[in-house]
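Hey, I'm writing a tutorial for new members on how sequence and structure tokens pair up, and I'd like a real worked example in the thread rather than a made-up one. If someone can provide the structure for the chain below, I'll link this post from the tutorial.
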Amino acid sequence: MRAHDSATAPTTIAVSSSTQAPGAPAAPPGKSPSRRAGTLQAALGVTAFSLTFPATAWGLEGFGPWSLVAVRSVLAAVIAAGCLLALRVRPPARRHWAGLAVVGAGVVVGFPLLTTLALQTSTTAHAAVVVGLLPLTTALFSALRMGTRPSRTFWAAALAGAAAVLAFTVQQSGGALTSADAYLFGALLVCAAGYTEGGRLARVMPGWQVIGWALVLCLPLTAPAAALALSQEPVQLTAHSVLGLLWVAAGSQFLGLVVWYRGMAAIGIPKASQLQLAQPLLTLVWSVLLLGEQLTPAAPLTAAAVLVCIAVTQRARG
């Protein structure tokens, strides 16, 4: 699967045959700059997402859960709408709106809401369980939705990586299941669906437009929800709460998804999803630095195991 540059037209979306700039020299045989760029973009998206749970924890210091989720979505939609208007991007074709609705339901509303509710009673380490399982779930959704058939080696490495991350994050939380697990597993399913549909749409339109239009599509729901939530939940503006809100709105909800969807379009949904195996470990690092949580000695061993699994999945034929 290769990345494509897209340009909108009055009735359809035109897709060029290559991302190579006009006049640029051809890529050396055996090398694919678009795939390397796609891997880098997906990795940047994972880095942005790894800050989501710590930033959400900061945001909850000054906002209620419903206010935080609704306001972050509204702010992200304002940023996206500004970009779409400034660049005079035409609305997508009618056939794409159903897919954008799935992206909006899963990525804009479902995952942020369910994980924020979970983080009221769960630590960031425990919440990272859902992120550890997300790559495998996304690959499963991709196989069902798009007919992809990764190799057995790919699946073996993916399962091993997911098991390593799951064992590590459960160990970090003391091995106890909490009432937040229902929220986390629900978030896992809706996010995997949103990622899969977003990755599919990013093959026919730029990734930033995928999340941009999904955010705008949800605005008639999120704007009234934000007004209602702010009137019902107390708000205490602090440096942490404001910074947390700004990051989850601009970084996690928009910019991170822009590069993430571009990466998925370039290297394929299954392989891009496996890069997220590193996300829980990055989240734990940020949790130590930003929230003061303790890191166990198991972290380096798990990190090494996950990196090996990522390397195998990236080399396995999908």
